[in-house]
Amino acid sequence: MSASWQPSSSPFPQPSNNQIVLIDTFLESQRDKKTGFLNPKTFQCCRFCGECCKKTFVWLSPWDVHRIESLGFSKEEFSEPDSNLGKGALVLKKKADGSGCIFLKEESDGTFNCSIYEHRPAICRKYPFFGDPISDCRPKTFEDTPGK
Predict the structure, then answer these.
(1) Spatial separation of the C-alpha atoms in residues 147 and 80, rounded to whole Å
(2) Burial code of 115-128, b = ≥16 C-beta within 10 A, e = fewer?
(3) Any residues with CB less than 8 A from the CB of 103 and at least 6 apart, and which?
(4) Rounded (10°) CA dihedral 129, 88, 15, 20
(5) DSSP string spanning 63-82?
(6) Range list of H helices, the chain
(7) What pLDDT is recorded for position 48?
(8) 45: which of 6, 63, 129, 134 is 20 to 30 A away, CA to CA?
(9) DSSP-derived secondary structure letter, 38
(10) Could you tell me which residues are beta bridge partners of residue 90?
(11) Quick check: helix, strand or coil at residue 27?
């Protein structure tokens, strides 16, 4: 973090201590759920199947929105409100045909890639260690798992 950065200089609202405690408590409770034996230090994805980008919804933090806007996209182009998550909550848009994230691109060889990979949302960076792992996803580390 830059020495010149000050909390008051952030363009985003600062969470209260209570909100931070709630988030930390929730994340701690989710740590070992759904990922079982997966180890973040050895997990390797991806086979470029795109399943993780086709079947999940992606909540966007203000930092995610800022990162994607820095690429020249307007917030309206890539996000939409989701009232189920609370007032002002945004999620990443899906393609019009429902086939996945608007930034998921199919390559000529049939594989899929994220067109904003270096700027992708935080929840995408944490997959599958946060969120709902997709049953159709077969990460590379499963190749060495007996019985798989």
Answers:
(1) 41
(2) ebeebbbebbeebb
(3) 53, 78, 92, 114, 115, 116, 120
(4) -40
(5) HHHHHHHTTT--HHHHEEE-
(6) 17-30, 51-54, 62-69, 75-78, 122-126
(7) 74
(8) 63
(9) -
(10) 60, 81
(11) helix
The gap between the terminal CA atoms of the chain, to the nearest Å, is 42
The length of the chain is 148
Nearest to 86 by CA among 19, 39, 28, 25: 19
Contacts of 135 (CB under 8 A, 6+ apart): none
Backbone angles phi, psi at 91, to 5 degrees: -125, 160
Report CA 54 to chain centroid distance, whole Å: 12
The CA angle 12-16-21, to the nearest 5 degrees, is 120
Instruction: Report which DSSP code applies to 113.
Output: E
